[in-house]
Amino acid sequence: MATEPATTEFTLDTAQLLAEEEHGRSIVGRSPWYLAWRRLRRNKVALTAFALFVLVVAVSAAAPLYADHVAHTTASANHPTENVKVGSKIVPVISQGGTYTDPKTHELRVKPVNIIGPTWWHAGGKFVLGADENGRDNAVRLLYGGRNSLIVGVGSAFLCTLFAVILALIAGYYGGVADWVITRFFDLIWAFPVILLAIALGAALSINGLHWNLRLFHVNLESGSLWIPTIVISYVLIPYIGRPLRGQILSLREKEFVEAAVAQGAGPLRIMFGEILPNIASSALVFFTLVVANNILLEAALSFLGAGIQDPNPSWGKLISEGQDRILTAPWLTITPGIAIVVTVVALNIFGDGLRDALDPRAKVRIEH
Amino acid sequence: MLAFVIRRLIGAIAVLIGVSFIVFLIFIVVPGGDPATRLAGKNANDQLIANIKHNWGFDRPFYTQYGIMMKKAFTGKLVSYTNQTNVTTQIKEGLAATFSLSIGAAIIWMAFGILVGVISAVKAGRWSDRVITIVALIGISMPVFWLGILTRYFFAEKHTWFPDGEYVGLTQNPFQWFWHLLLPWLVLAVLFIGVYGRVLRGNMLDAINEDYVRTARAKGLDPRRVLIKHVLRNSLIPIVTLFGLDFAAVLGGGAILTETVFDLHGVGQYAAQSIGAFDLPPIMGVTLFGAFFIVLFSAIVDFIYAFLDPRIRPA
Amino acid sequence: MAERLLDVKGLKVRFATEDGIVNAVDGVDFELDRGRVLGIVGESGCGKSVTAMTILGLTRGANARFEGEVDYKGRNLLTLSEEALRDVRGNEIAMIFQDPMSSLNPVYRVGAQIVEAIATHENVSKEVAKRRAIDLLRQVGIPRPETRVDDYPHQFSGGMRQRAMIAMGLANNPDVLIADEPTTALDVTIQAQIIELIDKLKDDFNSAVILITHDLGVVAEIADEIVVMYAGRVVERAKKRELFYDPQMPYTWGLLGSIPRLDRPKPERLHSITGAPPSLINLPRGCKFRPRCPHAFEKCIDEPRLESRVEDPTHLDRCWLTVEEKRDVRERTIEGELVA
After folding, report:
1. How far apart are CA C97 and CA C118, in angstroms?
2. Measuring CA to CA, which residue among B280, B30, B233, C155 is closest to residue A209?
């Protein structure tokens, strides 16, 4: 006879664990990546989120196509004096201010500047999401902005994960002085208020760009380069990945398979990249996904404060910053880039969670803000 | 115990020196306009600039300059390059707003974070958990400044239900203080509520499967007591660490976006303005101020952690 | 005739999991009288822990389904409300677990956790409860209990933690103490002490004990009756003496063969059972031990009933081999090994 379901004591997770324990050996022998993929495949929410992210990337990548063939404009082309046919009406993109006489009181009033709002599809693809104060197509700028935000977000997450993995490998493998120096380095960046450091660096570099011409080492980044925010953002988040990975490596270092490799005479590089790296790869992958989400937000914050992506490149954060002054007359300029950020970041976070659950149901990988 | 305190203290000082040095280097490596020219103002001539360079020590080697700046920083004599105001005075003026914002928001985010975490852990897998999880996820996926702009627009500009930004002193008018801060508190707290709720939910679901929880249930304890005394008590330990560090960051100017959006004139906004003007001394001052809180609170967190978890208590 | 405390009839426990229905317990019967020790033996994953936890309702949940009856002094614990069951847990039936480190909450003092067990079921003052906790710690053999009562679990050794767990289990003088692998995580010398302690305290507290283990050597000392479980069901059940001297089930032979024995004339080779227990989602047809049984034949494609096939009517087993065949095989196996 079935009993009343009790509150929460026995969840599906516990049943799952119990089941795995009970028929323990039947799943042994498959590669962990295959098992992860099998678990991920069942997680429809995570897969949908990933598809959504891929869609955002694809649509942003297609920004020039959209600009050419749908909106018939460019990201920076101004259309202040044009008219658009919306449905059957002819509407000016920007109705200039000027004055008018109030019909009731006969007083002279100032007309506010009126910017065309979202036309959706009634204007044949033009100004789908409205225009800005210069008559630029908001949808086109949003796509180009998305392209830049995504490039910076993904690029910085990649650099960040790469450096963090290398530093963690060196610190965790060699220990001793190397570990001490790298741990102090992590501590130092950790102690910085992240956003202050990023803003200070971003602002400093955005004035004249970065020019280092040492003998073998030439760096020439113009002030508008996307590399500057990419590097800045990747740098400040290194300890957030490096620290937990170092901890994992320290415990892996003691494992028998590493000792076996040492006993076989494997060199440090082979042990680090051949033995240890595959064991932290799943954590690094999850971190990467969640850091992309985090960095898109950080880029938006930097650009909002003027320390991120610089003119003439648009970005989601910059669009919000530019739009906020006109929020009363043209709220779409602020709202749409924000929605784009939220959709992208939510998709990445859901996918990242699903990936973590799939790769290692017991892992505690998380990004702290 | 004493050794522990001393070790933490030395570590803290080392970190502060490191932080200040990095800030200084950023401005040396990346020259963003000569500070002497800024100090000289509009009617500058070469002689004046040369004098300023000499008086302020800009013609000396960078380590001497660093030493001078540190001396000024710790004696409260840092002066802005752009408008010659005293940095310490400016930070002090922003303190009330920043502290009010941080403490209020921290209370809100801690209370609601725990509530959200507990509810979603208890209802794990049910629709209420899913709704909460998604809302929390959206909360942590929202740019805080965007949320700030939208709430300010909707609640203070389109509808004038709330005052439109600015800070009112607590001693000046407690009611207006509260009223002006309510929106910024909520906006700042949203992100943390999402983060804490998710972390706590995960910790609690881990703890529910722990053997000691099974023992507690086998003793015949009622579910509420098991939940509070055994599951929640143990799950809160990592949250305390998280809270200490987040609170320190917000206190030390990390609420820069919220302060800017709501025009609260706190320390964070002061930093944002100084960064915009590329003004080294205030940036140095605020960064040290922020790093100080982070270092201080990470030490406090270690003490509290030891108190909460007997396993790591020093003998 | 001693008082009947527990009567488990046709107990089945099923869990819905992502991979399918897990038949964790599939038809288990046994009785327990006051003052007796029942041993439940089997490999990990044979359903013995689930059986024990189900008696206390600790496996209840949205994806668990139960059948059968767990009769405790006339009440069916399977259908008892959670509230009523909480009065039973820790009070009338107590349970201690395998890993004493993780089974005690690391952030509370040992004494406080015993006091909690007392205070849950009895309305006593803190001082009285603490004094009783000290007494209990003394009874389970903790030295200087007056000071150790304020220690944290991590300050106790493994054996002491298990003693503390036993003290906690006995705090409310329960009728039944269920010990789930109480010695598995401990050193061999400590194991014997803990088993002796349980045996002694059973008499002091006038309780009955269910001792769950994968190690027949552990139950050999104190059990009166032994239930051997495999793949969620009872495959053999007998008085201890009967089981050790005339085991009927090839699976039991395997378990017996894997303990070293000093009472045999010549050193015997230890032999292990090959293969792994079946998945509880897709059970084999017929006898569940068939795929691993060296003596399986055509008849084993149908599952034998649990019934008595020897002279002793209380000795039950599930094997198609005739008693003569079994005795013959056993003799040959032992001799064969002696020759080898």
Report:
1. 18
2. B30
Q: Are β-strands C225-230 and C307-308 bridged in parallel, bridged antiparallel, or unpaired? A: unpaired
Q: Which residues of chain A fall short of a pLDDT of 70?
A: 1-30, 97-98, 112, 193, 207-217, 223, 360-369
Asked if the model's pLDDT at residue B54 lies above 50, the reply is yes
Give tens-digit pLDDT for C173-193. Answer: 899 999 998 888 788 888 888
Say yes or no for a CB contact (<8 Å) between C102 and B216. no
Q: Are B260 and A305 in contact (CB under 8 A)?
A: yes
Quick check: B2 contacting C, CB < 8 Å?
no
Specify which residues C20 forms β-bridges with.
C17
pLDDT at residue A163, rounded to an integer = 93
Angle, to 10 degrees, between the axis of helix C110-121 and the axis of helix C158-169? Answer: 10
Which among A8, A199, A369 is the nearest to B122, CB-wise? Answer: A8
Chain C interface test: which of B211, B215, B304 (most C C-beta within 10 Å): B215
pLDDT in tens, B215-253: 999 999 988 899 999 999 999 988 988 898 889 888 887
ipTM for the predicted complex comes to 0.84
Length of chain A: 369
A-chain CB neighbours of B194 within 8 Å are none
Give me the residue from A1, A10, A42 closest to C64, CB to CB: A10
Does position C282 have pLDDT exceeding 90, yes or no? no
Distances (CA, A) of C248 to A48, C43, C308, C325: 56, 18, 10, 10
- A89 or B102: which leads in pLDDT: B102
Taking CA–CA distances from A6, the nearest residue in chain C reads C61
Tokens 């090994």 correspond to what residue? C337
Closest CA to A203 of A322, A309, A292: A309
**Ordered DSSP codes for C86-115:** HHHBTTTEEEE-S-HHHHS-TTS-HHHHHH
Q: Do B220 and C99 touch (CB under 8 A)?
A: no
Rounding to the nearest 10 degrees, give the CA dihedral for residues A118, A123, A124, A128: -10
Residue of chain A nearest B293, judged by CA positions: A191
Pairing of strands A94-95, A89-92: unpaired
Rounded Cα gap, residues B85 and B82, in angstroms: 8
Q: Do C168 and B215 touch (CB under 8 A)?
A: yes
CB A93 within 8 Å of CB A83:
yes
Question: What pLDDT, in 10s, does the model give residues B131-151?
Answer: 998 899 999 999 999 999 999
Q: Which of residues 80-139 of C touch B (CB under 8 A)?
A: 82, 86-91, 94-95, 97, 99, 102-107, 116-117, 120-121
Coil, helix or strand for A165?
Answer: helix
Kindly determine whether residue C120 and residue B311, on different chains, have CB atoms separated by under 8 Å: no
Secondary structure letter of residue C323 according to DSSP:
H
pLDDT of residue B37: 67
| Rounded-to-integer distance, Cα A239 and Cα B33, Å | 31
Hey, is the C-beta of C11 within 8 angstroms of any chain A C-beta? no
* A247 in Cβ contact with A183 (< 8 Å): no
Q: Which of C244, C62, C127 is nearest to A11 (CA)?
A: C62
DSSP string, chain B: -HHHHHHHHHHHHHHHHHHHHHHHHHHHHS--S-HHHHHH-TT--HHHHHHHHHHHTTTS-HHHHHHHHHHHHHHT--B-TTT--BHHHHHHHHHHHHHHHHHHHHHHHHHHHHHHHHHHHHTTTSHHHHHHHHHHHHHHTS-HHHHHHHHIIIIIIISTTS--S----TTT-HHHHHHHHHHHHHHHHHHHHHHHHHHHHHHHHHHHTSHHHHHHHHTT--HHHIIIIIIIHHHHHHHHHHHHHHHHHIIIIITHHHHHHHT---HHHHHHHHHHTT-HHHHHHHHHHHHHHHHHHHHHHHHHHHHH-GGG---
Extract the tokens encoding B239: 């949250």
